Amino acid sequence: METKHSSLYVYEHRDEFHLDDSYAICGGGYPLIVNGELKGAFIVSGLRYDEDHQLIVDVLKEMEAER
After folding, report:
1. Taking the CB of the first residue and of the last residue of the chain, which one, N or C, has fewer CB atoms within 10 A?
2. What is the 3-state secondary structure (H, E, C) of the chain?
């Protein structure tokens, strides 16, 4: 999460990032940023990489709607 972007974003824009070969980039990781500061990350695995990402987005939208 050092990029402060979702792993799907990094995957889709990997030419913009200079990450070494030790990174396996795909969907399923999403940074938790509060007041501009990285506080943690949401991680989902087990579905297709785009479905992992979408699950995080859907849950965050649902949580925001309940606020």
Report:
1. C
2. CCCCCCHHHHHHCHHHCCCCCCCCCCCCEEEEEECCEEEEEEECCCCCHHHHHHHHHHHHHHHHHHC
Would you give the end-to-end CA distance of the chain in angstroms? 26
53 C-beta neighbours (distance < 10 Å), count: 23
Contacts of 1 (CB under 8 A, 6+ apart): 29, 31, 38, 41
Q: What percent of the chain has pLDDT over 90?
A: 69
- The pair of structure tokens assigned to 9 is 């974003």
- Average pLDDT, whole number, for the chain? 90
At residue 17, φ and ψ (nearest 5 deg) are -110, 145
